[in-house]
Amino acid sequence: MKLQFLEKYNSKGAYTMFLVFFLFPFFVFSQTLTGNIISETGGKIPFANVIIKESANTEKISEFTLAKNGIYTISLKKAYQKVFVVVSATNYETVVKEVQVIDKDKKISLDFTLKKEKVREIQEVIIKQKKDAFEVKEDTVVYDVSRYKDPADRKVQDVLKKMPGITVNDKTGEIKYKGKPVEAVKLEGDDLFGTNYTVGTKNINVDIVEKVEAIENYSDNPLLKGIESLDKVALNLKIKKGKIDFSGNIDWASGFDADSKQMQAINTNLLQVAKNYKSFLNLSYNNIGVNQSPYDYFSNSLSIDQQKDSNYSAIKVIPDNSFGSFLDDNRANRNNAFFSSYNLIFKAIKKNSTRVNISYLKDKLIQDVYNENTILVENLTLSDSYNTKKTPELYRVEIDSKTNTSKKSLLEYKLTAYNENSNQYSSIVQNGVKNYETDLLTKNNFFKQTVQFTYKLNENSALQFNTNYSWNNLPQSITSFPDFSITDDEQFKTQFSNFKKSILDFQLLFLGKHKNIKYLFSIGSINESNKYNSRIEGQNINSFENAYLNQFVNNRSSYYFSGQIHYNFSKFYIQPSYNLVYQKQNIDATNFEKNKLLFEPKLYLKYKIDDTSLINGIVSYSQKPFSEDKLIMNPVFISNRNVISNVTSLEIQKTFNSRLSYAINDLYRQLNFNLGVYYINDKGNYFSEINIAPYLTSYKYFYSPNTRNTYGLDFSYDKYFSFLDSVIKLGSNVSFSNYENIVNNSEIRKINSNSVTNDFSWRTVFDLKINFENKFTYNINTTKVVAGEKNILKSFNNSFKIIAKPFRKVSLISGIDYFLPNIEKKTNYIFIDSTIKYTVNRSWELSFFAKNLLNKRNITEIDINDYSINTTNAQIIPRYFLLNITYNF
């Protein structure tokens, strides 16, 4: 029945009708009440509660808002014949007024004057009341961790996912609050982890955290507080009393899998908090697929710090194998990972604060995969069976030092450096006939330092100067035995590739504010050098060697003047900005050179409907050069099957981006709702010419002045229903795009692509000994060649969990995961897991884990594109049992 229901919403019309029906109540307002709330002396009352009831004697609250500075406005969500407006404030007597709601087109103005409460002596009364789950303090929301945590939650990240307004990316650990990326996760007010805050959220034991503060209008530079208008957000973890000075935990787990292989997981954390320093040490090892680090070598997702430094990073031309699948990593990640991180922040002198983050990771990932690719345009089937072992090793250090050189000035220095070495060995059988062994070596050395000086001119303005210098060297080599084949008579043994990137930039900013206007102007320059070398070495390549040689330096220089003005009038927030850039590009090995004057405007608008809901929109136009890997002219082998090259161009990609969204974030009603539509137009793109042969596929990328359009809709709905004692979440994302390519000497093919993802989850919060969670996801991916073939893939998965606490010290967590990768083929997978936890006392805890009880050994995944259907069969972690002992101190 569920599948039939979802099938009905495959059509665009039905899907649209569903959204209109579901969202209609959010856009219909029956009446607006507004007014002033003052004291007997005429002063405005800072905070007051305004409650709407349908009866004067009922305890049921129909609607609610908070009056600030003596003013309130509430748009009623329902149509009423009459309502009772109840106004209350601390130390004032409550006032109730009856309102006849007749004219629905006009606002009703209703003022209140509150009298001071009379002081009376009363006998002592003890009231036992359940604590509120959150508390609002100006621009900060304080969440009570105990109200969101259940026995299945072990780390801070687990409980953050359940807090309204907060979302966590399961792959990268990135946190968003009200849709905005979190800049920092602080510990007792100090930014201990920097951009790698997932070290803390993935490893800090949730049992030592009492509160989580979500801070809006956050500024990491105290001199710019109230001047800058970047609309940043941050989280702050408040530690329980008694855990401040010295605390930690040791988790040790050991057991066996279905093949009698020993499975282990060890995780040790040590937290120290003192007056002048804070530190967090983490040591972990496991071979059960759990990633305790911020870095993902399994599916190759970028960590948060790698995303932020992406503009300073060189391109990895020869990619590592990605082992990601539709399963959670801890089912498919056959790892052997050791991770260590030491994080320290201290105040050596009175006006200085220094943070040091040191990380080390070493892993060994194994994957056995059979991949079959059906080429629809040629009626050709290609296959690769390979066993891969990948052994990455990473050393990383980050130093961030801040010194108040005076009361009005702040000097900051930041250093980031890492050394990464990865060896990937693969044994491959191609098309069931040819056997290969390949060895890919990658070294990645990165160095970046930043100096920033801020001087506060007065309460309303400041100057800031910053400069960055970065250097990244990324040499790679892939060797094959037997040799790579260019033709039947031409072979070579090793492909070398090396990108070196260096950037030096300067920026001077002037920030200021005047009444309700904030502004920022900056001038600066960016000087970038990209040096690339690639070659092949081995036997029988004399006639081809130069044809496979790349050697060039791409120099880019940009000089810019930018500005941003932020207007805040009543309920309107308007922020226009611009960037005027003079850009120079050249490639030294060719006659390619291009100088252009670029103008990039942007407009951000926000209308605050009331204290809980708003409408915002953004329109921008940007002009950017393409990434440097599009400058590689001659072929580079990136595997024994695939080779890439480009027809080089220094053209600019012009992008028009627009988005309109409506959001409700009402903590008191425990409602979060977001609806957004977007449109992106890219003018000037690289498209691919693909030539597929039984043993070699070449991809040549060409610049095209044609446009690519992407548009779509996304919405999310998160609501607590008291009559069900449940939290229900709905989510949907619909996107459409178009692109072009050439396959095996065809004409240019125009392709339309669209995807639909629907999520529904139900989590009970009964005040009982048992609770439930259920989530299902339904996906539809479609590609359609204009006047050609159409491919559709539909998939479905459902996860169900029972969380029970039959006795005070015993918890049971059991789950069933169901996956249907392709609805048409009906091949499904069921996974059953179970955990028993026994809390001995405050210090000791015993757990027994049973994973993959049905002992599934392989999964088959299907992917589609416009010219092929790709089927992948991969081994996963078999059934295993673990006994875990936890010691908290």
Explain what this protein looks like in three dimensions.
- The protein is mostly beta strands and 889 residues long.
- It has three domains: 29-114, Immunoglobulins (Immunoglobulin-like), CATH 2.60.40; 134-253, Ferric Hydroxamate Uptake Protein, Chain A, domain 1; 277-888, Maltoporin, Chain A.
- Helices cover 5% and strands 63% of the residues.
- The strands form four sheets. It has a 31-stranded mixed beta sheet that branches.
- The longest helix has 16 residues, at 12-27.
- The protein is globular.
In short:
With 889 residues, this protein is mainly beta. It has a 31-stranded mixed β-sheet that branches. The chain has a 7-stranded mixed β-sheet with strand order 9-10-14-15-13-12-11. Strands 1, 4, 7 and 8 form a 4-stranded mixed β-sheet that branches.
Give the SSE map.
Elements: H1 2-8, H2 12-27, E1 31-39, E2 47-53, E3 63-68, E4 71-76, E5 82-88, E6 95-100, E7 108-109, E8 112-114, E9 134-137, E10 140-144, H3 156-160, E11 166-168, E12 175-177, E13 180-187, H4 198-203, E14 209-218, E15 232-239, E16 246-257, E17 262-273, E18 277-286, H5 304-308, H6 329-332, E19 337-346, E20 352-362, E21 365-375, E22 380-406, E23 409-430, E24 434-458, E25 461-485, E26 491-514, E27 517-537, E28 550-569, E29 572-587, E30 593-608, E31 613-625, E32 636-637, E33 642-646, E34 652-666, E35 671-692, E36 697-721, E37 726-743, E38 749-764, E39 770-785, E40 790-807, E41 810-822, E42 827-839, E43 844-851, E44 858-864, E45 868-875, E46 880-888
